[in-house]
Amino acid sequence: MPEQAPALSDPRLGELDFELVKHDRVASLEEAAEARGLEPAQVIKTMVVRQAEDDYVFVLVPGDRVVDWPKLRSFLNVNRLSMPDADEALAVTGYARGTITPFAASHDWPVIADVALSSTCSIGGGAPGVSLTVDKKSLIGVLSATVADVTKPAG
Predict the structure, then answer these.
(1) Among 24, 97, 99, 151, which has the minimal tally of Cβ within 10 Å of its Cβ?
(2) Is the pLDDT of residue 90 over 70?
(3) Dihedral (C-alpha) 57, 58, 63, 65: value to the nearest 10 degrees?
(4) Domains held by the chain: number
(5) Is residue 142 packed enough to be buried (19+ CB in 10 Å), middle (13-18) or exposed (0-12)?
């Protein structure tokens, strides 16, 4: 069964109407969607992206989409972005890859939510097999996320 979920300690969750979903570990986004009773497009992938040294953003990406790097660079008005390696991602978020979420992260990095997020979506709870099913508008509000067109269809 799921591990302890640090994200559940985030005080902002008191302002958010969500359904806590717990399931066994999964090996893919498709398995996660099935375990949560959702479509892959409804599962949010939370990416941590480096803009510069000690400067990161969280990007909320629908499960059926990928980051469109030129769009994201243009939106952030930067020439270069990169993905931190697993150790750096853990150091700057407090979460291992596959469990990264803005909730109760070790740093309060800005959040960018892609315009294509589903009206009902599922975001990770900071541990394998733990997620929150939420209304997109409420999630964006609680996270003070900026909405932008920064993804493209996968494949």
Answers:
(1) 24
(2) yes
(3) -10
(4) 1
(5) buried
